[in-house]
Amino acid sequence: MRRRAFVLAGLAAAAAPSWAARHPRFARGLLWRVGKKGVAPSHVFGTIHVADPRLSELPAPVRRALAGARSLMVEFLPDPYSRERFLEAALLPEPHTLEEVIGAEDFQRAVRSLEPIGLKPELINRLKPWSVLLNLRERRAAEGAPLDSQLLERARERRIPCMQIEGVEEQIFTFDEVPMDAQVALLKHSLAHGDELLALSDRTLEAYLAGDLAAIWRLREEFAARYPEIGRYQEVMTKRVVYDRSVVMAFRMQRELRRGAAFVAVGALHLFGEKGVLALLEEDGYRASRVS
Structural domain tally of the chain? Predict the structure, then answer.
């Protein structure tokens, strides 16, 4: 089972609160210069965790900023141990099964939905609902390398230090602590509205390519407004996947920002609004200015 960064699950399963549309802050822009007096400026770049031909080359401003960086910090650095540990944590404790948790009809939907990526029914039946949610984002064949991989490749070519913001245990904790009723409700909803969610993903990518962070949040709000019955579950996922992690990201990236000339890449939605990393950094005395 392949593992993709957590923001995608937040994109599809969680909606932003209405204040974001009324009072957007840091509403546009993917690359930001961040610094404070006496320290060489760094850059914070918002990524999207998909592989698509339109993302096959890093934008020129991003390449220039990375070329001048002394270090790269990304959300997560995968390795064989973390992949194995993540898969282990994604399994339900025996003797429980996914079919038992979500019912036979939705289990068969899950099997059909995950067939294109080669997951066998026997394995799917062992997965926790949050793991199935993550794998539903893999239904389309990857085309090209995700932005995070491109950044890591360039940084390693330059032999600059590469660091991660989160460890695998923290990422596991993010989802394992979501109440089971919320996991089940969001999975059932995703299975019932798969085509709509794929269309939503397409529109989200278009908004990302335009650098329109507010539009990404607005798309989620509009989708969520059509299904208020899962609103409270969406709020739980948004808090855990986006807001709580943004606080951790803003704190940990300051280690490199204090050294200066760092390049930090996080999911684009972590940049947006009053609860995003840019606003949190400004509360700590940094100044953020849009580059592109």
Answer: 1
| 75-99 residue pLDDT tens | 999 899 999 999 999 999 999 999 9
Alpha-carbon gap, residue 152 to 134, rounded angstroms: 22
Q: Report the pLDDT value the prediction gives residue 25, as an integer from 0 to 100.
A: 84
Q: Give the pTM.
A: 0.89
Q: Which residues of the chain have pLDDT under 50?
A: 1-21
169 assigned to some structural domain = yes
Residue 28, strand partner residues: 212
**pLDDT digits over 205-248, tens only?**
999 999 999 999 999 889 888 999 999 999 999 999 999 999 99
Asked if 249 and 277 count as a contact pair (C-beta separation under 8 A), the reply is yes
Segment (H or E) for 200:
helix 194-209
In a domain, 1, yes or no: no
Strand partners, 44: 32, 264
Alpha-carbon span 143 to 41, nearest angstrom = 34
Domain residue limits at 26: 7-290
- Residue 107 counted as domain residue: yes
The H-or-E segment that residue 72 falls in is: strand 71-74
Q: Is residue 103 part of a domain?
A: yes
Residues facing residue 35 across a β-bridge: 287
- The C-alpha atoms of residue 137 and residue 12 are separated, in whole angstroms, by 9
The two structure tokens encoding residue 291: 């580059």
